[in-house]
Design a protein that fits this description.
Helix content is 62%, strand content 2%. It has 592 residues and is mostly helical.
Length: 592
């Protein structure tokens, strides 16, 4: 009876003679090839016919056939050698993996230079967060030694990198083991090829600046602030001497770490002898150069660093002059825009311009990244925003304090909001005393001290809404004031500022509230609606500006349109001359 092979190929027929068993064997070259393929992974096909009643001899199948029959599903087990090879996978060396990850960014920097596209440089910078935990001086020294040649103009830069890592004795021009194996396998066949291989390859400045940023990250993580400031000064001088637009995003990161090193050097700010005061000329020179070179990334980063520098030393007037005399780039990165708006909101809050501060801080919290990597910035901006809202006389939404990422951090501010909302001066002062250290650490203590008058105003407004007439003595008792004269002055100021609508009777010593009218009959709802429309339009404009378009795409479209018109003219001319007919055009043609 014909049987079908398990691999789905041509059926094979068996002929039984007598009581003997038939075993198929292929002695041809094709059979040898099949048997060889079976050794590589496919089982050898052997058909065994069961013996009849008279037959007592059986044919022993080969080992591969026995293994195949033992498996009910017809799967072939792996050999012992294959199992050991599959189980014993080579372990990945973490040092070699880190070096490979660092060197993989060099290709991105090369593409950024070749294509003049900053997105590849940004991809290389984003990889620093995953590399920084594995950085060691030996890894940095090995990467520098394998990247830079022993001789050449770039060797001086490599020596500076090795000196910052503490590995001055590391030899340059060393090749990795993989490169040595490749060079031995592919030896040059001519003297010119050998001479070409011996010539050192030029290292683009983007590579050594990227390695310098990795060195800055390592020194900052190890809290070597003095060494980091010294190395950052040398690195910033080198960037200032170069004029390459492909270095813009990298130079912004260099200045960021340079300022961060100086902030951690003693004496710490707000001391006037702090090193952050000494780097202001360097940052101002970098800002002038960035504006002249139209370096958007460095310009935005340095403006933010200068504002932070002035605020740390409480030089509010200088920060205000910087904002008024410079223009923040419109197409800056979203993170830099969020930082700029935050510092601008802090400046306006200190200057008592609460409406502008509220607008800037609201935009900063909206532009802040939603990921956990920027959680600290979102919390800091939200704290200042809450204080500004209280200074404006508004009560923040309760949902702000119910967020899982904000609930614990905003607990002291929640107590403040409760005291201000009720107008309880005693609870307000208790909250300030209990959480004074937290407020000073957040930089909101001086602004919170201004809230005392707001608490009193809020209490007076609550009483004006609750009572049509209330005596000054009762106001003094409820607000815990010292005398009735203080209550009289506070009520008079609240009436003049428009906080309450009431009249003050000094002879009888009471305050009489006016009847509350319909708020929808006033202009307040229309103004609020106008503010929301303006915010939506501003968001739409920013979204349109943030869209990316292919460079010089309009020129390509014009070129294609011009070529199409030229082809149409040539075709029309050929038709008029009689060179083309309807068949050549591929369809019916009515004429022109």
């Amino acid at each position: 009876m014909p049987g079908k092979a398990p691999n789905g190929k041509k059926p094979i027929g068996n002929r039984i003679k007598g009581n003997k068993e038939a075993e198929m064997k292929d002695t041809s070259k094709k059979g040898k090839a099949t048997k060889k393929a079976a050794k590589d992974g496919d089982d050898e096909m052997t058909v065994v016919v069961p013996s009849t009643k008279g037959g007592s001899k059986t044919t022993k199948p080969p080992a591969s056939s026995a293994a195949a029959d033992a498996d009910a599903d017809g799967d072939v087990d792996m050999d012992a050698s294959d199992k050991t090879d599959a189980d014993e996978e080579p372990a990945i060396d973490p040092v070699a993996q880190t070096i490979s990850d660092i060197k993989s960014n060099f290709a991105l920097l090369d593409r950024a230079v070749a294509l003049f596209d900053a997105r590849f440089s940004l991809r290389a910078l984003r990889s620093i967060s995953s590399i920084r935990k594995r950085l060691t001086p030996d890894i940095l020294a090995q990467v520098v030694a394998e990247t830079f040649p022993a001789m050449g103009p770039s060797s001086e830069v490599a020596k500076q990198l090795l000196e910052a890592c503490g590995r001055q004795d590391a030899p340059l021009g060393r090749q990795s083991s993989e490169m040595e194996v490749d060079s031995e396998a592919a030896k040059p066949t001519s003297k010119s090829a050998a001479k070409k291989d011996k010539e050192p390859k030029d290292i683009i400045p983007e590579v050594d600046v990227f390695l310098g940023i990795l060195t800055q990250v390592y020194l900052f993580d190890k809290e070597l602030f003095m060494e980091g400031a010294t190395f950052s000064e040398v690195l910033s001088d080198r960037i200032h001497s170069l004029n390459r637009r492909t270095l813009d995003s990298l130079s912004a990161k260099v200045y960021f770490y340079y300022s961060l090193f100086c902030e951690n050097l003693k004496p710490l700010p707000p001391s006037p002898q702090s090193p952050i005061v000494a780097i202001r000329p360097t940052l101002l020179a970098a800002l002038r150069t960035a504006v002249l070179r139209k370096d958007v990334d460095t310009q935005a980063s340095v403006i933010v660093l200068l504002l932070r520098n002035y605020l740390l030393t409480s030089h509010i007037s200088q920060a205000d002059l910087l904002v008024s005399h410079t223009q923040f780039p419109e197409n800056a990165a979203n993170n830099q825009v969020a930082r700029f708006l935050y510092y601008l909101g802090r400046i306006r809050a200190i200057q008592l311009r609460y409406s502008e501060a509220h607008e800037h801080l609201t935009a900063a919290t909206r532009k802040a990244p939603s990921s956990n990597c920027a959680l600290g910035f979102a919390q800091t901006a939200t704290k200042l925003l809450l204080v500004v809202e209280l200074l404006m006389g508004d009560i923040p939404d309760r949902a702000t304090f119910r967020q899982s990422t904000m609930e614990q951090t905003l607990r002291p501010y929640f107590l403040l909001v409760q005291a201000v909302r009720v107008g309880n001066l005693e609870d307000f002062e208790t909250a300030i005393v209990d959480h004074e250290d937290t407020f000073k650490r957040d930089g909101t203590y001086t602004l919170i001290l201004r809230l005392r008058q707001n608490v009193i105003k809020t209490g007076i407004r609550m009483m004006s809404l609750s009572y049509s007439r209330i005596s000054l003595r009762d106001i003094c008792i409820r607000l815990h004031l010292n005398s009735e004269e203080s209550a009289e002055y506070i009520v008079a100021k609240a009436i003049r500022d428009g906080v309450i609508e009431a009249t003050l009777d000094r002879e009888r010593g009471f305050m009489k509230s006016k009847e509350v009218g319909d708020i929808y009959a006033t202009r307040e709802p229309g103004e609020a609606f106008h503010d929301r429309i303006r915010a939506c339009l501003a968001l739409h404009d920013e979204s349109v500006k943030a869209m990316r378009f292919p460079m010089n795409q309009h020129r390509l479209e014009l070129k294609n349109a011009q070529e199409a018109r030229e082809r149409e003219r040539e075709m029309a001319k050929e038709i008029q001359d009689g060179d083309l007919d309807e068949d050549d055009l591929g369809g019916d043609f009515d004429g022109i």
